[in-house]
Specification:
Length: 81
């Protein structure tokens, strides 16, 4: 697949670069789980360009999980995300 489709908040870095497969759906599942557990977007920026940079930087649990509300969320849920 090579077309950029989807909502920016949920798309995988590979979708941005235009070379992706079905594995990107798992990225989106993780993004949705993150949102449902924390009530916040996992990747965001002041504009689309900043959000894309954040997505391309990847998910870094050591950064994401050190702020509230992650201190109240189980390790199992964190691992799932």
């Amino acid at each position: 697949m090579s077309r950029r489709v989807g909502t920016l908040s949920y798309i995988a870095p590979e979708v941005i670069t235009g070379d992706y497969g079905l594995q990107c759906d798992m990225w989106s599942v993780g993004a949705l789980a993150y949102i449902m557990l924390s009530g916040k977007l996992p990747f965001c920026g002041k504009n689309d360009h900043a959000t894309i940079s954040s997505i391309k930087g990847g998910f870094k649990p050591e950064e994401h999980y050190k702020v509230a509300p992650w201190d109240r969320i189980s390790d199992h849920a964190k691992h799932f995300v």
